[in-house]
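R.M. (postdoc): so does anyone remember the format we settled on? I'll just put the structure tokens first.
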């Protein structure tokens, strides 16, 4: 039985998206079969709810101009899929991804990202 068929059955039964894990690793190819994966009778395949971070934005307001750093760190299962303004992503111990923006706030609510010099209204990140 293909993993896609199992995922579809779970989605229909429980109305949610899941990721299947076998022996701690997630098969990326939904076309693979349980036999090809090496699953034997009595083995367990774990199902986890799909983890998708929303599309959060970070607003900073200050009555006066100030310099600030905004740091963001993800749980090990998530990866950044978008950042704006674009800043480097680093790996922490344990596989966590982290990033930070060095910004200057302005009294009108705008921000200046200091590395790129971009003037923006907010910081944006997205993760999967």
């Amino acid at each position: 039985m293909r993993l896609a068929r199992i995922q579809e059955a779970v989605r229909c039964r429980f109305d949610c998206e899941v990721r299947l894990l076998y022996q701690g690793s997630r098969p990326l190819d939904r076309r693979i079969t349980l036999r090809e994966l090496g699953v034997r009778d009595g083995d367990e395949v774990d199902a986890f709810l799909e983890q998708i971070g929303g599309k959060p934005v970070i607003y900073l307001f200050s009555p006066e101009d100030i310099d600030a750093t905004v740091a963001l760190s993800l749980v090990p299962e998530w990866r950044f899929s978008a950042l704006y303004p674009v800043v480097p992503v680093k790996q922490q111990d344990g596989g966590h991804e982290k990033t930070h923006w060095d910004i200057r706030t302005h009294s009108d609510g705008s921000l200046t990202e200091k590395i790129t010099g971009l003037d923006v209204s907010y910081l944006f990140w997205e993760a999967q």
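R.M.: ...and that's the designed sequence above, right after the tokens. Also worth knowing: The radius of gyration is 20 Å. The helical segments are 3-14, 34-37.
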